[in-house]
Specification:
The chain has 355 residues and is α+β, with helices and mostly antiparallel strands. The chain contains nine helices and ten strands. The protein starts with a helix and ends in a 14-residue tail after the last strand.
């Protein structure tokens, strides 16, 4: 009897030790049978206590699209008698990495222990990193496209004019002694090309970065576009925007500015509208722009998909991981909705103050 009681005491101590480990381990540990019925649970879960879990099918707590993954993993654990790992999401939008460990008794697998580790934060961090990497790739692509455009503008415009002026000045110098009149004409033509080069370079700089956008930010730049629209005889604009907006990354500010600019140009050319509503708003980590006119509208299906204005708006938004939707119908006006990521500006100069 003494020996039996000693074994019973040892068994109770082992059970107490195991229970203490199970209660304090951070992972959720379940024991399930081949039908996924829960026979043991060490922790509560959202919506049920550990006791309430007993006797319930474990698959019911998973999101419907992840139940088949769990079924295949459980079947594999029973059949192969080896540890199986799978990632699933539950009904409460939590992600779990589950390790299914077969429990072999008498040469048979009657149950499987499922060790579930909450990886929700890790998955969120991975998704955030993935979005940032995609955004960076799009930003680099946009910068490369701008570099190609700048190179083309310089080659076809500025460089050719300067080359022409150089040749004319050299010709003027050579003709000075033998044909003064022709030399003077060559000099005047060279000066004309130089003046054109200066005007072209100014237009190029302004096209790349409008001064008002650089100095005062996108809200002030949009107000400047509204003034320009009025000066050109455009419709009256009702402008709604936040009182303040932090300085955004240069590509984002440029995209917002160009989208509003292109929309105003389209409205003046095609809409015949006498008023426009322009809204700039913030929601979470996104900045949204709505531009609505009340003009003649058009049939979206009948528009050439390569039409520069519409394509430019959509492409700018897409390159920045944003959205651009255009709604229109004959006699119902046109609405442009744009959503871009709210990316703050980072000034990389060592002496720069935080924006």
């Amino acid at each position: 009897v003494s020996e039996r009681r000693a074994h019973e005491n040892a068994l109770r101590e082992s059970e107490a030790t195991l229970r203490g480990l199970m209660n304090n381990i951070p992972d959720l540990v379940l024991v399930v049978d081949s039908g996924s019925t829960i026979r043991f649970a060490n922790h509560d879960v959202p919506g049920a206590t550990a006791k309430e879990l007993l006797g319930t099918p474990g698959f019911e707590f998973l999101a419907p699209e992840h139940r088949e993954t769990a079924r295949r993993a459980l079947a594999e654990a029973f059949q192969t008698r080896s540890v199986v790992t799978c990632d699933v999401r539950d009904r409460f939008d939590l992600w779990w990495t589950c390790r299914l460990v077969p429990l072999v008794e008498g040469g048979l697998v009657e149950r499987v222990m499922v060790i579930c580790t909450d990886v929700t934060r890790q998955r969120a961090a991975e998704e955030s990193l993935k979005r940032e990497q995609q955004f960076l790739r799009h930003m680099l692509d946009l910068l490369e496209r701008e570099r190609e455009w700048i190179a083309l503008e310089i080659h076809d415009g500025l460089a050719q004019r300067l080359t022409g002026s150089q040749l004319l000045l050299e010709s003027s110098e050579q003709l000075q002694a033998v044909a003064p009149a022709e030399a003077h004409e060559a000099f005047l033509e060279a000066m004309r090309l130089v003046r054109e080069s200066i005007r072209h370079s100014r237009r190029l700089v302004s096209g790349l970065r409008p001064p008002v956008l650089d100095e005062f930010g996108v809200l002030a730049a949009i107000e400047h576009l509204i003034e320009e629209n009025a000066n050109r005889g455009g419709p009256e604009v009702e402008y709604v925007a936040p009182d303040e907006l932090m300085r955004l990354a240069w590509p984002v500010e440029s995209a917002l500015y160009r989208i509003v600019e292109e929309s105003f140009a389209n409205i003046r050319r095609h809409s015949r509208s006498d008023r426009v509503r322009l809204e700039v708003s913030l929601e979470g980590d996104r900045v949204r722009v709505l531009i609505r006119d009340f003009g003649v509208g058009f049939d979206l299906k009948a528009v050439d998909p390569q039409r520069v204005g519409i394509r430019g708006i959509q492409q700018r938004a897409r390159l920045l991981e944003g959205l651009a939707e255009i709604e229109s119908a004959p006699s119902r006006g046109t609405t442009v909705r744009v959503e871009l990521p709210l990316v703050p500006r980072i000034d990389l100069r060592p002496d720069a103050e935080p924006l």
